[in-house]
Amino acid sequence: MKKHIPLILRIIVAVILIQTLRFKFLAHPDSVYIFNKVGLEPYGRITIGVLELITGILLLIPKTVWLGASLTICIIGGAIFMHLTQLGIVVNNDGGILFATAVITFLLASYLLFLHKKDIPFLS
């Protein structure tokens, strides 16, 4: 079972990243609101969506987990920063679910990077 936990975590993080793409790419009103509020609509919304798609794929490829985890930390770190500085914890009466999901994703990606630190080519 211990061998399967990293794979399960990779899938969880990838699914979280990929499932939000429909909101970004289809210009869901909540997504547009968020990116308007931080001054990144529409180009930031689309760019972040493309980056999240690439990151989700990288997490599923065993040799690139370290890169996918690193990108996740950067992307989600930016989202957490925006929540803390401009958006607030609760966005559009969501009860803080979006922020909590970002924090969980950040922590899981950090753990995945720790697990795969030996795979980082310029550190070995």
From TrEMBL:
Any single Pfam family the record assigns to this protein: DoxX
Membrane-related topology note: Multi-pass membrane protein
Name of this protein: DoxX family protein
Transmembrane regions listed in the UniProt entry: 7-23, 43-61, 68-91, 97-115
Keyword Transit peptide in record: no
InterPro entries in alphabetical order: DoxX
Keyword S-adenosyl-L-methionine: no
Keywords: Membrane, Transmembrane, Transmembrane helix
Phylogenetic classification of the source organism: Bacteria, Pseudomonadati, Bacteroidota, Flavobacteriia, Flavobacteriales
Organism: Postechiella marina
Chief place where the protein resides: membrane
Cell compartment(s), UniProt: Membrane
